[in-house]
Amino acid sequence: MIDRFEIRQRSEAREEALSSYAAKSGFSLGRERTETPDPIRTAFQRDRDRIIHTHAFRRLKHKTQVFIAPAGDHYVTRLTHTLEVSQIARTITRALNLNEDLTEAISLGHDLGHTPFGHIGEDMLDELYCGGFRHYEQSLRVVEKLEKDGTGLNLTKEVRDGIFGHSKGERPLFSPERILSESTYEAEVVRISDAIAYINHDIGDAVRAGVLAAADIPTSLTDVLGHTHSERVNTMVCDIVENSWAVTGKTEAGNPPVIRMSGRVGQATDALRNFMFEHVYNVQSQNRDAQNARRVVRALYGYLVRHEELLPPEYLGYSDETERRVVDFIAGMTDQYAMNLARDMGL
Ligand code: MG
Fold it and tell me: Domains (ranges, CATH) in the chain?
């Protein structure tokens, strides 16, 4: 007969065989509010499960990645993007003998704060709200505050730091230096996997939408990275594992190892990302759907700030400031919800 109260301890003991650079759940920096440990799951496994059961996670299904409310069934949504990031990151994590549970939790939570209409919605809220808006800050706000009726999920510090630090922003994608010295290696794996996922699945969506032909991608890049989606993902993942192998070794004095690509594959990946900005993202952000999305977000924001009584009652408790409450409400909307609400309000 198994004593179920030992299951978590056994899982924690198995983590001792992970790399010395892995984050171990038994030595987690902990939660804001102390809790009794789960009898079966480690702290990071528990965080992963909490994220999956949120309302915000369910809504990712109906949020735009790049193409706004597309008609076809095979376009990537924020949810399928999240699952792809999780799978790529777990593959790299397992290969490097890091903590797969932590990677999974960060991956599944990283985009919870994304607005409707992808980065167009994000940019609009940033422009409208005096406090500014970044989706990674909102992801953290979702898990720390908005879920569970304003009490948040009380996640471990490692998962919260990973969610907050996932965005590339203006930083170089495959920096030779560790960027956030306080972040875990698992968080860095997620950060890079996010980019690998979107660069590759957005090519597929752009071809699907007729914005790009596969042959438009310069052969100088496809010769290095591969000619199909699976070849390219495989090249990038294998290159990272090979070039980050030092992470699997023993902790030594001096410069810590980094998660990185080789110069050749890293440069081709950066160039492919730039190519996507030039030929897909910048183009999409100017089309009619994008203009309509901007109009909807702007109209909703203006109207709801003046008619706060229309907010669902729970949002009133999330902040003392009207504008902040409206931002929380709009950021949580799916594309369709935002469009329908704007239409129903005659905006
Ligand atoms: Mg993402």
Answer: 43-286 (1.10.3210.10)
